[in-house]
Amino acid sequence: MKTKRFEKKDLIWFALIIGFALLPVIPGVFDSSFTQHVFILILLFACMSQSWNIIGGYCGQVSFGHSVFFGIGAYGAGMAVVTYGLPPWPGALVGAAAAALVAVAISWPVFRLSGHYFAIATFAMVEIFNRLFMVWYWVGGALGLDYPFVDEGIKNFIWFENKIPYYYGALVLFIFIFGTVRWLERNRLGYYLKAVREGQKTAESLGVNSTLVKLLAMGISAFLAGLCGAFFVQYNYRVDPAMVMSLDMSMKFVLITILGGTGTFFGPLLGAMVLIPLQEYSRAYLGSLGSGVDLIIFGLLIVLVIIKQPRGIMGILSDLTKKRPASNEGTRRR
Amino acid sequence: MTIFLQVILDGLMNGMLYALVAVGLSLIWGVMDVINFGHGEFLMIAMYVSYWLGFIFHIDPLFSWLASGAFVFFLAALTYQLIIKHTVGKPPLSSLLATFGLAMVLKNICLNRFSPNFRLLSDTVLGGKVLHMGDVIVSMPQLITALFSLAVMAMVYVIIHRTRLGWTIQATAMDKEAAELMGINTEKIYLLVFGMGGACVGIAGGLMPSYLAVHPEVGTLFGLIAFVIVAMGGFGSIPGALLAALLIGLVEALSGFYIAPVFKYVAVFGLYLVVVMIRPKGFFGW
What we know:
The structure holds 2 protein chains of 2 kinds. By secondary structure, chain A is mainly alpha-helical.
């Protein structure tokens, strides 16, 4: 039996996304630059977490190394523009391709590890790349890379007055990345990924080449993370190792996905919709209480979610909408 | 040659300290299969306890390690009751992520209360004292910390391998259900092991403020190095942790001196990757 390409549920979601896209044209809802900034970050972080979700959620390989790929994407795109004067569009592709190449090269040996060992190896990777970029003068070392002030417009993907064009840029990225993952979910590779997650040995015994599958997934995942990095450098005008290639950034990829629901299609979006406004508004409004208060709340929320509902917001939603017996298929999704 | 010996010695002394930080983590990991991401923050808190005892009550770190060890023991036990207990049996990385949240909370509470300033106890009994061994200079606070670390590690080893309590811990680690059937209260063992892991890092942290400045970020790198040591030594293995810690201390010192200081952690984490590529479960892992 052939699976339908689109189900009714998807149409509802796409309607919601289109509604989201139209938000900026409603004056009064979305007119302050800070609100626009928060919306852009929601989309960007949803994209980043979705890229992580491919390898961490669908394939079950919890990588903490994604800030490396994000960073390489950002640096690649930045270097293409700053050093070689390319327009940002091919620059973004250069960054993303570099991220994918590095990801495949370093993952090939690391995929021999599993569980905690894999997680710690990916930590180590972040620390190594972070320190190498700190002293690599070609990419600006610890000072980072400053973006040149070129003419604004779609050709250079740069605007100074208004954040709305960036919002639409982020939306395009969002549709592209979520579309890719939707395609992957329905594709043969997507099923292989889930098979590897549920039991690598079993999948292998059925003829799945698990190393190849994982490498492919990692390549796609890193490519998309690299694209997000390219967007980030365009939006932020600068990039430095502490900002993009840190463990904290990696943890954000993971935590947003976990909060929303690991291995679910809309999990990363839901996670970003909760965490990013919380982070940005608490930084803005609780900053006056002294440093760190926003992060204390952030940390407490993480602890609560993991303890109370490890399946994230999607888990809460599915509990609310349907009461199924525990043995049913729906509850087995992580 | 003198310089080489000096570097080696400094590396070994640092390695012993790392070993004590790591052994707590290794114990928890080996028995419960839980990764405590807040381990480095426990170290930081222990350093603050020791620092404030020294600053306010003029208690020397030489003695306040007892207080900081006990403090972190209870902090760890509380963490177990409030967080870890609820993550046992959940997806394998939930403990890691939950303790990451905890680490964030602890770090930022300290940042908020104590400011990001670096604090060092200046007038301690051992502070600034050195021992001359030929041309090689040994910093006394560091030496005492290193020897202390070895002693505490030996004690943990004896507890695990030679006492009745240790056997119940081993039984729990090997097969939780079977241990329960034998009448072991595994919940209590877990609580105790988590506390012991905390106490190890608490003792290490208690000794440190006389030669290493305290600040809210100080634990992060120690925590990461401890993970690497535990994974490199093989999980749950105390000799493995000691061997890996000494090796990492040496590599850190040698690469820091002979290549460049910025490359020392590249070398440390690189060494880890090389080791686990060859032995995916570490030196003594099963």
